[in-house]
TrEMBL record:
A connexon is composed of a hexamer of connexins. Residues 134-201 form the Connexin cysteine-rich domain. This is Gap junction protein. One gap junction consists of a cluster of closely packed pairs of transmembrane channels, the connexons, through which materials of low MW diffuse from one cell to a neighboring cell. GO terms for molecular function: gap junction channel activity. Residues 42-75 form the Connexin N-terminal domain.
Length: 219
């Protein structure tokens, strides 16, 4: 899979982001996307082939793997990266709409089409809420699917067609555990950044509206 489209999307959004938003883009691009492509993807590349059980009963190993890993970590991370990045398209589309509207009317309708105010502010806030929501949903999903964020060395499986309780071994559990902790930590950092930016924008424009009313009142 080519991640070029996601890189281009994040680069485009960076132009309209606040300072905190630019930090979020850097975290997603450097600490999540690059780590995913450069290292994490290779660690889980042969996870099914390297999953071994101490029995050669046909089908036993497959059903045990499916039970303990219902969805591949790496595919779920890919879906998470896409889902938390796409709400930023709302901002890009809104700016494009403003620019096209100015061209259609052939006059300057906004101080700057990319300035975060009015309708674009609402769009930006909605994108932050969606990004935060997706991050939390995927963290909960990871936790529920894999019974926590730990990777055990040994799992016991007694699902049919296994004739009895068999021992199954997960490859490179320590290495996988390190990357899981790292990616969960960066996901939590992104949540904090999104909430900080949301609070900052709400506070900033609340003060701005209050000052406007105060000036009008005294005039």
């Amino acid at each position: 899979m080519s991640w070029g489209f996601l890189r281009d999307l994040l680069s485009g959004v960076n132009e309209y982001s606040t300072g905190i938003g630019r930090i979020w883009v850097a975290v997603v691009f450097i600490f999540r996307l690059l780590v995913y492509v450069a290292a994490a993807e290779n660690i889980w590349k042969y996870e099914h082939d390297e999953f071994e059980c101490n029995i050669k009963q046909p089908g036993c190993e497959n059903v045990c793997f499916d039970h303990f890993f219902p969805v591949s970590h790496i595919r779920l991370w890919a879906l998470q990266l896409i889902m938390v990045s796409t709400p930023s398209l709302l901002v890009v589309f809104h700016v494009a709409y403003r620019e096209n509207r100015e061209k259609h009317h052939n006059q300057k309708l906004y101080k700057s089409p990319g300035e975060i105010d009015g309708g674009l502010l609402c769009t930006y806030l909605i994108s932050l809420i969606l990004k935060t929501g997706f991050e939390i949903v995927f963290l909960v999903l990871f936790y529920k699917l894999y019974n926590g964020f730990k990777v055990p060395r040994l799992v016991k499986c007694d699902i049919r067609p296994c004739p009895n309780t068999v021992d199954c071994y997960i490859s490179k559990p320590t290495e996988k555990m390190i990357f899981i902790c790292f990616l969960v930590a960066t996901s939590c950092l992104c949540i904090v950044l999104n909430l900080s930016e949301l609070s900052y924008l709400i506070f900033k424009y609340s003060i701005k509206c209050y000052l406007k009313r105060y000036i009008k009142k005294h005039q």
